[in-house]
Amino acid sequence: MNRIKKLFQEKKNILSIYYTAGYPNLSDTIKIAEALQKSGADILEIGFPYSDPVADGPVIQASSKQALDQGMTLKVLFEQLKDLRKHVTIPVLLMGYVNPVLQFGVENFCKACAEAGVDGCIVPDLPMAEYEEFYQECFEKHNLSNVFLITPQTTEERIHKIDGLTNSFIYLLSSSATTGKNLEVGNTTEAYFSRIKAMNLKNPTMIGFGISDKQTFDKACSYGNGAIIGTAFVKAIADGNLEESISSFMKKFRD
Amino acid sequence: MKYKVNEKGYYGDFGGAYIPEMLYPNVEELRQNYLKIIADPEFQKEFHQLLKDYVGRPSPLYLAKRYSEKYGANIFLKREDLNHTGAHKINNTIGQILLAEKLGKKRIIAETGAGQHGVATATVCALRNLECVIYMGEVDIERQAPNVARMKMLGAKVVPASSGSKTLKDATNEAMRDWINNPVDTHYIIGSVVGPHPYPDMVAIFQSIISEETKKQLLEQTGSDQPDYVLACVGGGSNAMGMFYHFMDDEKVKLIAVEAAGKGVSSGFSAATTYLGKEGVLHGSRSILMQTEDGQVVEPHSVSAGLDYPGIGPQHAHLFKTGRGQYVSITDDESLEAGLLCTKLEGIIPAIESAHALAYLEKMEFKGGENVVVCLSGRGDKDLDTYIKYFNL
Known about the structure:
By secondary structure, chain A is of the alpha/beta class.
């Protein structure tokens, strides 16, 4: 069984943390992974930066730019992840945009992920139709899970299709928004979360976009199997001692 | 129809809709409706009425006598510079605003580089009384102050794009982010034949009025609707696609697309996408774009803001790859010289974008008597500062 499925069978209120590879310093990637596992993260989402991240707000854009300026590339990232599994045991996803994957080569990318012990990917600008036609076979050959996003505007028919293509979890966006917007759980968001819950999907759901504190995390957990935090974490490690920033950030959620 | 889009939204290897799920409902709504709406006789009537009475179409096809003498061929200029707002851009914004109304949208967003598409969008928003937000790179806002003022007079809100290189590419990113955050009532008027399917096809259809008129006018003036060459400049490629559209399937008509070489294709300051680029995905479609080995988008350079874009539309990528179109490039210096030449020979000050297409005439060899149509996509008023500085006028 894959690491992600196993995790969802064994645990509730799963906390997944996103960070940008190569930020704040080029060589922090593994250091952050270890510190996050130690302080209670359940899943790591390591972002490979892109020059034009249209789904992201200013914080993740800025971290991506800094990482790129410092020399981060997919090649450098896979070099850093060579001994990933000597350092962390929790599930690891790579998250980024499709163009760097295309240039690296889809087959090479999947192979490198498998060799590093990466469990899956989130590629926000890779739509379902293109995934099925050009990527699915290669992802499956290397046992990589592809995580799809759904929003309040995604139709039920499409959600069922996504559920059928998924073998890890579905990424539920709290609203249609770029990353870093605050989660406001009003009546419409609540109705949407309840609607998804009532669909009895075969895959678990993780709620993302706008989770920044214990209160919003708990709220998300009451509707899904856990939550994803990105922008708030990237902000928290901008400066100061990395290990200390991570441990004090995680204490807010894991005490 | 071999160069037109297929049912999956592709032109050969290029096109598609590489968009985050947040944009899927909007783009899907467009995809399902655009052909139906455009084909509706009522839409066609309103579209053509506005093109005639408001834009001033048909734009003349002018046989440029002194150019023709100089090059030994019949050089025709398709006068898109005479359109209201001064360029071909308004053909598309008129079409899209009518379409947005049919879809019940209340708010319009757009990106702009030099400000021509921003002005054309703000103009139609004023005309139809719709809220208008224009994204423009901070750098471009500084160097295109008159167009910023025009957009404001027209009632648009101009939002500076301060991410990345702060130019057209980043303004496009910001407009896409706005659309993600406003998924229900907003229509995004993309200004070129770029973006996710159906945009490249939709914009090409609205711009195809250029070649539709050209065929008729050529027939009237020469007795044949089949020119030997058509030329147009290419940034994203909307005027070129409009100029090529009705000639694409007639292999006897040679299509020449002129890209901006900037300071030279190998200078590191260029926007010659087909020469410098590789296949990849940017702004929602698979096409050819200038990028690093790692797939990061490279900043282009051109003296002409309208050609200063690191990609080309997917249909152009297809015409290039299949060899149907010939893709060439012209430097900053060559284009400015050609702009001055056009002014002196024909009394027309062209936009520097359009001057790239004119400049290529100099490199062509004619047997004599060929019919050549150049798309004069815009007028040069907006470029006076650049001309003045370059020629010490």
